[in-house]
Amino acid sequence: MKKASMQDIADALGISKNSVSQALRNKPGVSQKTKSLVQQKADELGYEYQNNVITNKEKRILLVATEFAISQTSFFGEIIKSIEDAIRKEGCQLDIHPLTQTEIKNLMIPANILDYHGVIILSHSDNNYIKEIIATQVPVVLVDHHDPSLLADAILSKNTDGTFQAVSLLIENGLNRIGFIGDIEFSPSYLERYRGYHRALREYGLSYDKKIEVTQIEETQGALFNKLKNIEKMPDAWFCANSGLAFMLNSYLQSAGYTIPDDISIICYDDTEFTRMAVPPITNVATDLHFMGQLSVNSLMQRIANPTTPFVHQQIVPSLNIRGSVKIQKI
C-alpha cells in the first residue's frame, strides 16, 4: 500500500501542502484549529512524520513593499538587492510582491501568504494593512518602518541620533540658523529626524524658527520651489530629510543666485546618486543599506527558528559623509 504523504493530507483537507507542513511542525502561520485537523487527518491516513527542522532550501520568503518604494531604486533598490543576495546565500527562495493602493485600502493581503515561511515588509504602507499580515502568524520583519502598534521585529536607522550628528556638524562650523525640510507626516523616520534636528538646536542653545521649517510638503520640484519662494530670509544652512529633497534644494538655491556652500550650506539624510551627482556633492549622514538588507534577513531567519522569543528592534547607527555642500571651518 502506498504510504500517505503530506500532499494526501492537503488534498483531503483542501489546504496547501505548505500549511500541512507548518501544522505538523507546530509552526506559526496556521491556526490551532487547522493544526488539530491536520494531525487528526494524518492519524486517519496513517501518515508517519518526524518533527524535523525544515531545510533552508524548502523555505520561501516573501518581500512586500509598495509600488512607490520599489520604484525608489537609489534607496530601497539597494536594500532589496542586499536582501536578494542574503536570501540566495541562505539557500532560500524569495518572491517580491509590489503592493497596490487598492490592496492597501481594502486590506487585501497576498492570497498565498500562508505558503511562505517568513515575510519581510519594506518601508511603510499602512499600519492596518501590516497588522493584517502580522495576524497570519507568519514570521515578519519590518525594514525601515516601525510603530508601537506593530508587534514584530524591525530593522531601522538610528534617525534621531543621525540627524543630531548632522545638525551638530553645521552648528560646530558656525552655522547657527538652520532650516528643516521634510514631510514629517509621510513616515516615522522623517518625524524622528525632525526630533533629532530640534534636539540638536536645543542642546546647543539655539532657538527654533518655524519660518524655516518645511514640515508638510509633497516631494516634487514644483511643490518645494513654491515653498522656498515664500521664505523671506534664507537660513545659514538646510537639513533635508532625504537626498532627493536636498538635490532639488541645491538646484533651486543655485538658480536663485546663491553659491553653495559659501552662501548656504546643505546637509541631508541618505547617501544616494542624488548626493553624489549634485554640484557640489552633498554632505550627508547615511545608513549602510547593504548591511540593513543583510540584517533584515538574519533577523527573519532567527524569528523563523525561534518564533516565541521577544520582538527586537535593531537600529543601525549612520555615518557622516562630508562632501562639498557644507562650509567647513574645522573638523
Secondary-structure map:
Layout: H1 6-13, H2 17-24, H3 32-45, E1 60-66, H4 67-71, H5 76-90, E2 93-99, H6 101-105, E3 118-122, H7 127-134, E4 140-143, E5 153-157, H8 159-172, E6 178-181, H9 188-203, E7 213-214, H10 221-229, E8 237-240, H11 243-255, E9 265-269, H12 273-277, E10 283-286, H13 289-305, E11 313-316, E12 319-321
Parallel strand pairs: 1-2, 1-3, 3-4, 4-5, 5-11, 6-7, 6-8, 8-9, 9-10
Antiparallel strand pairs: 10-12
Helix pairs in contact: 1-2, 1-3, 2-3, 5-13, 8-9, 10-11
Shape: elongated
Sketch the major β-sheet: 6 strands, parallel
Largest sheet, spatial ordering of strands? 2-1-3-4-5-11
CATH topology annotation of the largest domain: Rossmann fold
Terminal CA distance? 79 Å
What's the name of the CATH homologous superfamily of the largest domain? Response regulator
Tell me the number of structural domains: 3
List SSEs in N-to-C order. Answer: HHHEHHEHEHEEHEHEHEHEHEHEE
**Rg, nearest Å:** 24 Å
Helix content: 40-55%
Secondary structural class: alpha/beta
Instruction: List the total number of helices.
Output: 13
Average pLDDT rating: 92
Low-confidence regions: none
Strand content: 15-25%
Question: What's the total number of strands?
Answer: 12
- Highest-level CATH class of the largest domain: Alpha Beta
